[in-house]
Amino acid sequence: MERHRLIPRYRDGDRKIEAGRDLFSIGSSGKSIFNLLEGWVAVYTLLEDGRRQIVQFALPGAILGVLPSRRAPATVGAQALTEVAVSVIPVSVLTSHSQADPEIGMRLARSLAHDCNLAFDHLTSIGRRSARERVAHLLLELFTRYRAQWPGNRSEEMVLPLTQEQIGDATGLTFVHVNRVLSALRKEGIVQFHYRRLRILDPDRLIEVAGVDPEIAMSWLERCPWA
Amino acid sequence: MERHRLIPRYRDGDRKIEAGRDLFSIGSSGKSIFNLLEGWVAVYTLLEDGRRQIVQFALPGAILGVLPSRRAPATVGAQALTEVAVSVIPVSVLTSHSQADPEIGMRLARSLAHDCNLAFDHLTSIGRRSARERVAHLLLELFTRYRAQWPGNRSEEMVLPLTQEQIGDATGLTFVHVNRVLSALRKEGIVQFHYRRLRILDPDRLIEVAGVDPEIAMSWLERCPWA
DNA sequence: CGCTGAGTTGAAACATGTCAACCGGTGTGG
DNA sequence: CCACACCGGTTGACATGTTTCAACTCAGCG
């Protein structure tokens, strides 16, 4: 858990948040940033009519809620998918620490650059891939990122704390269609996903269906996004 | 032009690049970052089979080519849409300057946070909006961002250096469909876009079709993304 | 035991993609 | 100066992927 901290010895802002709750909501002020220490978080946007898009899944080490300017309100919200531990860092604390240690600003920049790259990848997936490719791509990404957190873990199984509806919100599909895609992948013996348990049955075919270049898969191998 | 510089007095890396050329390509090393001073740039990804996705349009003040780690090769390329002026900053120069001035890291972070927010918005558009909404949204975004660069400008017309195919690559549509959407918007007297000239005929209806909240439109009002 | 949230399946509607033909401007070489 | 090719744009007919709507199952839970 210590290795995930942006500001090593700052502990005053540590909080626990239960699954389902928002760390911060759309429209919030951005007076603090959130350094995720444990658990899964979904960052999402909403349209007026209730359509929802998950734009990012955050794992331990992620930094959330960074606004480009101090007066811009957040256009995204962040929901805990599991129980979550975060370090809440007021912007004032961040700026004072970054003045003492210029490395902090650069770490923050690296983390944001990482998020940008993931977002670009996600964008490409949604914009240019078929439903089948998108779902495969997402499962592979999440599996890879998850596994990188537990070095040496060789299991092909994991708890993926998502519903099919959330997968739909992330891939730009309806949950009905996500279901059909998952059924097909299951019948073909590629992956199994049932009630939050994901099992990769045939990694090679999954990679093929997802259409990912091993190069790119490597960029998901974060333990700490700024390292 | 000076107001767009991340590192105020660094001029050694200044370059001009002609329209159509890449500032950097997919797979490049990331030994330098690119501070856009003048012109338009499209940041894109490619899939193996040639499908292309434009993930970002960069305007003066943007910072491009920032990699999360020093050894990750770029998964995106950046193409000049117009003639472009950039300041090419070697990472070594960046790190040495940022040690002297901690503000530089934070500026970089703000710029990246801005890019992330735009990417999230773009993601939402592609994932959850109809073709018509997406195109309207993109035109409105680009018009707003462009206009913010020329404070006081009240013209409803601009040069938008894009082909319909590039609009398709940005919105995740085919150029044929983009054409149909643009024809419809033109017939309805909302916008006109012909050979790189964009004219907004009915701003209110465009905003309505795009389905944007004025709040969000404000977040596009960058003059310098880190200011 | 009935309720609720998640998942599953089928049929039909619809948005967008594909393919193909054609237009108009522009630059180039004979 | 004409012929031609090329690029971007335009339009129609048709194919297809995805959504919508609706009904139903299953598991967990008060």
Major sheet of chain A: 4 strands, antiparallel
Kindly state the number of beta strands of chain A: 11
For the record, what CATH class of the largest domain in chain A applies? Mainly Beta
Percent of sequence in beta strands of chain A: 15-25%
Shape of chain A: globular
What is the CA-CA span between the terminal residues of chain A?
Answer: 14 Å
Stated plainly, the CATH topology of the largest domain in chain A is called: Jelly Rolls
Major β-sheet strand ordering of chain A: 1-8-3-6
Please trace the helix and strand order of chain A, writing H or E for each element. EEEEEEEEHHHEHHEEHH
Q: State the fourth-level CATH superfamily of the largest domain in chain A.
A: Jelly Rolls
The greatest interface between two protein chains, and residues involved on each side, is: A-B, 59 and 59 residues
The number of domains of chain A is: 2
Structural class by SSE content of chain A: alpha+beta
Radius of gyration of chain A: 18 Å
Named at the architecture level, the CATH assignment of the largest domain in chain A is Sandwich
Q: What's the number of helices of chain A?
A: 7
Helix content of chain A: 25-40%
